[in-house]
Amino acid sequence: MTYLNAGISFASAVILAFLTYDLYRRYQRYQGTHRHLLFWAAGLGMFGIASLCDGILFITWNELAFIGWYLFGAILNAAWIGEGTLFLLVRKKWVAATTVVLALASIVTLVILLSTPLNAAAYTSGIPITEQYQSILPKDAIVRRLTPLFNIYGTLLLAGGAAYSGYLFYRKRILPNRVLGNVLIAAASLAVAGAGILNRFGMGQFHSFAQLFFAILMYWGFILASKPAATQPGETPSAAQPLRAK
């Protein structure tokens, strides 16, 4: 079962790498005007790195793999995906400032995590890292206190983006794809975060598969939310462009 679980994680990493590249290719196609795609690609790429590290940690202990898994799988991805949603919905100068703050906070968190002593003796091969990371990471580690801040930020942006898209559709009856896309992104992101619940029911072996499924669902949401509205009779092409907050 150990190698099967590792294989699922490695396969997930490959699939997510292709999906990340596709989002980046779409970003390039729009010549940098759809910056939200770049953030979503970064977030999906983080899931891919976390899956790769997850596979490694199924088989053997590796400190860098643990750091990669915790940093990209538990801390940063929700915040960076949420940042993409913010860029999609809001066209204000202050949005760029939030990215600077998020980037600096991410770097500081990485430095803190790298300086945190890990209890490698608590590691056991063949057991999902989600079931044993709390024994490896010190209970008083500062990075534990920082993790909720990133997740709360990302959750607020994702849930808020879904709600705001629904409001725009209700008010103007346009861009239903934006509503569905943001709902899928928010739901899938929360489901990925909640996939650890499987461990409590003794189903930790399905954790990697669940993460892959919800990450693909999230990718679908990315594509839907990025589609321009279809031009209606009497509308100009510009009217069919994605609506943003002014």
CATH homologous superfamily (4th level) name = Rhodopsin 7-helix transmembrane proteins
Oligomeric nature of the chains = single chain
Unreliable stretches, pLDDT < 50, 5 or more residues?
231-246
Structural class: mainly alpha
Q: Architecture, according to CATH?
A: Up-down Bundle
Largest beta-sheet characterization: none
How many E strands? 0
Give your account of this protein's structure.
This protein has nine helices and no strands. With 246 residues, it is mostly helical. It has a single domain, classed as Rhodopsin 7-helix transmembrane proteins (Rhopdopsin 7-helix transmembrane proteins, Up-down Bundle). It is globular. The termini are far apart.
Structure, briefly:
The chain has 246 residues and is an all-alpha fold. It contains 9 helices and no strands. α6 packs antiparallel against α7 and α7 packs antiparallel against α9.
